[in-house]
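Posting for a labmate who doesn't have an account.
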Amino acid sequence: MDPGELITHWGYGALFVLVILGNMGLPLPEETILVLAGYMAWRGELRVPIVLAIGIVSAAGGDNIGYWLGHRFGRAKLERHSRWLLGHPGRLAMMQDFVARRGALAVFVARFVPGLRFMAGPLAGALGLPFSTFLIANLLGAVVYVPIVVGVGYYGLGYGLGAYLEQLRDLGADLEGLILLVALVGFAGILAWRIVRASRRGGGGSAPPPSTSAPDGRGV
């Protein structure tokens, strides 16, 4: 069963699981899932207030789990697996420097940056950003980000392209499944390419030394 069918048949529970996994440190297409949920709310299959509540809770909760994982296992684990997670260990060093310098602001901004979003929690935990600071910035980011992305699905796909999409649906097209399938195949392809490239280079080598400055915990 593909993710589109999961959301169709399992509704809010599938939405919660998929979004929380995408925020724990797994490179899942969280924005695609939320856009799709917004579109399904436009169609009347889901309710907007519940989608928003679940999206915010699961996004913030997943990042909190990611924070705990980073705090528990530290920078060594992130550096060891940086090649297949990010494609190049140098990217991890840049992310570490950004979080170390900007603290809470980095956590907030990361919510809106694909590729950095799923690493914000583990990085903040590994770098020792105070949990209270992380929690506030993370929650604020989710409160702003989730309604925007769900709104893209509700207003952009629904009111903007809904008539055309419904015509495709009338022809038997499984739009939800197709959208998520394309997104997941793309992410899986990128991840597989990174793993293969890392293996050819001798595995996940260490990233260049990150900034030694501690997270300053400045608020948003």
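Reply:
Got it, the structure tokens are right above this. Residues 3-200 form one domain.
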